[in-house]
Design goal:
The chain has 470 residues and is of the alpha/beta class. The chain has 16 helices and 16 strands. The protein starts with a helix and ends with a helix.
């Protein structure tokens, strides 16, 4: 974290704690510089951050003053999806959105891409270069089917933070979390099986299920605490559900962390009804608070929790390095990997292993947690400023996704088409439901640096929403 960010965080905490009151003048730039032993430009940058968060306001020739605090918008209520098996039918919308990610002229708020511009990733570049120069035989040869042993050892160390005690032999390397989930479903399920998901759910998961000819049943989900155990129990009693896909840590798109009691409850339910839990932990390392949340897998005693994750969101999607802990399905999944994708790419695995082993990974993740937390605060302020009254906004506990529920008359599918003409791309909420619900919602990627260009996009988004309400 830079000095100005550290100072901005310190002042923001003091404001939130009431040490500075509305209308009170803040210390001068010079006095604050002397108090904290930093340069004047550092203080100025810190004040700019607080101004962007609408915590302070400048007054010409007078200095900075504490701004009146606006009430936070409420959190969206518990979702109420259609509770019967359905098939996802919005492939064309997703394809159009994915095509826009490769167009540099489009400003994409719709993607799930992390910030890969941070200097804390420079050691990874060095490791990639070193691997290419000094491990030519390994890089150009076949990988072991389970994946690079050194990487699996490092991942086993990482998973200890989430409470999962593993050995390298428990882990299979894949081409990303989506690949882990795909191989797991292929190995365990058959066409026509019913899979329960949180609602709203990541559209990539919904399309994966559609591609594998699996049916989806959406379960009501609370934006603060996760899937409704009661609704899930009713669905399990009514339908022959084969498995449950859960994103319990820094959920995409709602951002919640499921409380430990609920994790244990859903695991107990799965044990009673002999159901597989597919746990997507791709955002788990980005939880705001440390230590990171425990995985459901950490309480599993009979190997029914299949844990999937990757470096896609914490480091970079271009690494294409993920992993799966298949439990009792290890041999099936290894066979499926051989059949479906074969071995992986040694170069990125070796570089990722060194990046973790040398301590660079933990430093990078600590930095990104702080950056994303501050980004989400800024984007929430912008939504409050530029969007119409009556919105509900999630309070993410990690990751970098913000979910906004707009007044019911707003159709974000139509709004997103209009924004495309302005070279702006957003993800309407209907993409996150197999039944097409949440058309009045939008997911925003807060990994995008909160600069003036992105502030302008948020303003244009708010204007388009207001027009849609007329």
């Amino acid at each position: 974290m830079t000095r100005y960010q550290h100072l901005a965080n310190l002042l923001a905490e003091r404001i939130e704690q009431g040490l500075y009151r509305h209308g009170e003048k803040l210390p001068s730039v010079r006095s604050l510089s002397q108090e904290h032993g930093v340069s004047i430009s550092t203080v100025q940058q810190a004040y700019q951050v607080l101004e962007s968060l609408q915590l302070i306001t400048p007054q010409p020739r007078s200095g900075y003053f504490i701004a009146p605090q606006k009430a936070q918008p409420p959190v969206p209520p518990m979702s109420r999806p259609v509770q019967r098996p359905v098939e996802f039918t919005q492939w064309d919308q997703v394809m159009n959105m994915l095509a826009g990610h490769s167009d540099d002229s489009i400003i994409s708020f719709s993607s799930g891409i992390p910030d890969v511009s941070q200097p804390s990733l420079k050691p990874l570049w060095r490791e990639l270069s070193r691997v290419a120069q000094h491990n030519q035989s390994a890089v150009l040869g076949y990988d072991d089917l389970p994946g690079c042993l050194s990487l699996r050892k490092q991942i086993a160390r990482l998973m200890l933070d989430g409470g999962s005690v593993l050995t390298a032999d428990d882990i299979i390397i894949t081409n990303g979390c989506q690949s882990s989930m795909s191989l797991s479903l292929l190995a365990i399920c058959k066409p026509g099986d019913i899979i329960a998901v949180e609602s709203p759910a990541y559209y990539g998961t919904l399309h994966l299920l559609r591609g594998l000819n699996l049916k989806v049943i959406e379960i009501p989900t609370d934006p603060d605490s996760g899937i409704s155990i009661e609704a899930l129990e009713l669905a399990v009693e009514q339908w022959p559900i084969k498995g449950i896909i859960l994103v319990p840590a820094c959920n995409n798109p709602l951002g919640f962390i499921m409380p430990d009691a609920r994790k244990r409850a859903v695991l107990a339910l799965a044990q009673r009804h002999d159901i597989v839990i597919f746990e997507d932990d791709v955002y788990g390392e980005l939880a705001t608070e440390y230590p990171r949340p425990r995985t459901i897998h950490s309480w599993d005693i009979d190997g029914r929790v299949v844990l999937c994750s990757s470096f896609t969101k914490t480091v970079a999607p271009g690494l294409r390095v993920g992993w799966v802990v298949p439990g009792r399905y290890h041999d099936k999944l290894l066979h499926m990997k051989y059949s479906a994708s074969g071995t992986g790419v040694p170069a990125t695995q070796l570089a990722a292993a060194a990046f973790v082993q040398e301590g660079h990974y933990h430093r990078h993740v600590r930095r990104m947690r702080q950056i994303y937390q501050r980004n989400m605060e800024i984007y929430t302020c912008w939504a409050r400023e530029y969007f119409p009254c009556g919105i509900c906004v999630t309070r993410p506990k990690g990751g970098f996704m913000l979910w906004v529920e707009l007044p019911e008359q707003v159709d974000m599918v139509c709004v997103s088409r209009q924004l495309c003409r302005l070279k702006i791309q957003v993800a309407p909420g209907s993409l996150f439901s197999a039944s097409g619900k949440y058309r009045n919602c939008v997911r925003i990627n807060c990994a995008l640096p909160p600069n003036e260009k992105h502030r302008d996009v948020m303003q244009k988004l708010g204007e388009a929403i207001k027009v849609a309400m007329e």
